[in-house]
C-alpha cells in the first residue's frame, strides 16, 4: 500500500501531466523525469504505474464519498458530482490502469481494483447506516445488496467513459438509495 504522502505527491505530478497527455501515454520513465526520481525509487514507493493509478483513484473516490453529516443520497451526489467534474482525470487514471494490462507488475492489484471499489462502497454504506440507524436493527445483507447495485451502476458509468450526467446516474441509483435509507429508519421488533 502506498503512503498518503506519496499518493499526494503522485497526484500532483499526474494532475499536471494528465491535463496535457492521455493516461495511456504516461509511463514510469516519464513519471520519474517529472518527479525527479530514479526508477528504483519509483518502484520502491509506487510498485507500478498500474498500482499507483488504482490506489490514487481509490483514494479519490474514498475522499469524495462521505456520509458523516448528511443523508446517504447527498453523499452519493457528492461522489457523482466529483466524478463528473474530474471526468478527464478519472478516465486518464483508468487508461493508465488499462495500459499496463500486458505487464506483470501490479497486475494482481489492478485485477482486484473493481472489488476494492465495491468493498469501499459496502463499507461506507454499512458505516452510514450503523451511525444513523434509529434502532440498530438493520440487515447487512440488504445493505451489501444495495451497495452492490450502486457499484454496478458506477462501474457501468466508468466503462462507458462517464458519458451520462451525474444526475442521470443518481436517478439510476435511486432504488438502492431508498433501500439504504429504509434500513436507517427501521424500528426494532419487540
UniProtKB/TrEMBL annotation:
<protein>
    <submittedName>
        <fullName>Transcriptional regulator</fullName>
    </submittedName>
</protein>
<dbReference type="InterPro" id="IPR009057">
    <property type="entry name" value="Homeodomain-like_sf"/>
</dbReference>
